[in-house]
Amino acid sequence: xxxxxxxxxxxxxxxxxxxxxxxxxxxxxxxxxxxxxxxxxxxxxxxxxxxxxxxxxxxxxxxxxxxxxxxxxxxxxxxxxxx
Length: 83
What we know:
Elements: E1 9-12, E2 24-30, E3 36-40, E4 46-49, H1 54-57, E5 59-62, H2 64-67
Antiparallel strand pairs: 1-2, 1-5, 2-3, 3-4
């Protein structure tokens, strides 16, 4: 896995946290310890993910250049002319 950056999308694929499974989380901040601060795209819930956790091991990371998600709150993720 490459370097994780702000605006990448994290998707939990595990079964322990069923209410978070398969939901897109956009990474909004990365602190100095490497913890990922995320926001679920389909709601206002925030999350903090430790990259050394079992939760993170069950996540898929989609780089911002590849996910091309559109936010429903009117804030675009892609600022260029990509479709």
